[in-house]
């Protein structure tokens, strides 16, 4: 298959003219009606790689019409047939994994091993979707003599998936396979900062045999999202991004009586006890704070050091210093992000925190135009400081000191977010105490990034998620289907009972 995205410029051809990206509607790349295009840069070099249209109401409407038209036939195709597309899609993800990883690396900046991990997770979610016929079979029961009740799942209709910049391939794949195997048709609105991976996903879905119109991509930002929220023929919306926008999207979508599930930002606390295994704690925390340059909703952002843990902090700083921008640490997404992250560090220092490892002003020889921030460890942070309770979204760890586990839990509980929390200890009892009291949807014990693997579902608590259920796993079956309950009586000799 050959579509427009085959022409995505690579680094070596950057000087060639930069093509404008198109939307993907009805199985074709189509020109957007947008009047404005936004420059997309490779964050490692700070140079433009493509330009993305800022689509609006007309583009969203075109995509919805295409998705609606495809729904009639796709939703009535037996699930056992629909799932065959995703067996093939999974194999195509595997076959193209290196190229998909390279594309993620190019548009998002994360290092290749991290980009490949993202593709592996996309494959895992697709495998889960392939088990959907087994997982989502209906139920039937004889509820009275000769009378049976039967429960069937129906797709909800045209759904939309709005995604963030930090996982250009994985987050779209959180929803696409599950929503489509369950019989919905979809409009993906990827982040305007990383629009390329979604076009490659479109190509692979087509190659896997997905009928035209079942999957559509509309590029853009706020205007496209608002048009999605307002469109009367979109039945459900998933959103993944910052809490500020998650709230806006949830409020707007539900005001139009749509089903909505909006995942927001995070501030994940790691509670470290003195008995923790020094090597395991230090290496896990360093990897968690720096992985994907700290631009993960599961990243370690605040460490609560309980009692005498100086030995672990010292080791953690040694581990952090081994993480080198341009080598095993990617850039952050933009110049603005770099400035914001460095501002948090500088303000904390001004307010009395102690910088143990300082990543401000990092550069990479040969890639000076990239948006680099080195690993940063800030000690003696106080809970009232901005760096302690706001989402920094960079390779920065704030350390707060407490005397007791209860004080540490109080700090964790006071944060508005609730995506993840971890405890580092060798005591099962202490771990259990924290697990039961942490106010977060995903908990780790001696694990820095406690992402639940399939079939366990992904989703936080508090202001890290708006709407019921989780976005992946069995929860996604509830979100992407509606239940029909049918009561049947065939035999005239069946007695009339109190219900019939
Ligand atoms: P963002 O909220 O800026 O953007 C997310 C999406 O919303 C994008 O598609 C963007 O185009 C759109 N958007 C931006 N501003 C908008 C507005 N005013 N109105 C309507 N739509 C708008 O998020 P981001 O910077 O792309 O991603 C980083 C954020 O995502 C972080 O807060 C991170 O924690 C969060 N995130 C959360 C999870 C999770 O599972 N909870 C996963 C990944 C990322």
Question: What's the short version?
Answer:
The protein has helices at residues 57-75, 79-95, 97-108, 112-130, 132-135, 170-181, 196-207, 222-230, 243-255, 278-290, 310-321, 335-350, 386-389, 405-414, 428-437, 473-480; strands at residues 23-25, 28-30, 37-42, 47-53, 139-144, 147-155, 158-162, 185-189, 215-217, 236-240, 259-263, 268-272, 300-306, 354-357, 376-379, 396-402, 420-424, 442-445, 465-466, 481-489.
Which short descriptors sum up this protein?
500 residues, alpha/beta, binds nicotinamide-adenine-dinucleotide, six-stranded mixed β-sheet, Aldehyde Dehydrogenase, Chain A, domain 1, disordered N terminus, Aldehyde Dehydrogenase, Chain A, domain 2, 2 domains, seven-stranded mixed β-sheet
Arithmetic mean of pLDDT? 95
Give the helix tally: 16
What structural class is derived from the secondary structure elements?
alpha/beta
β-strand percent reads 15-25%
Tell me the CATH architecture of the largest domain.
Answer: 3-Layer(aba) Sandwich
Bound small molecules, by name, code or SMILES, are: nicotinamide-adenine-dinucleotide
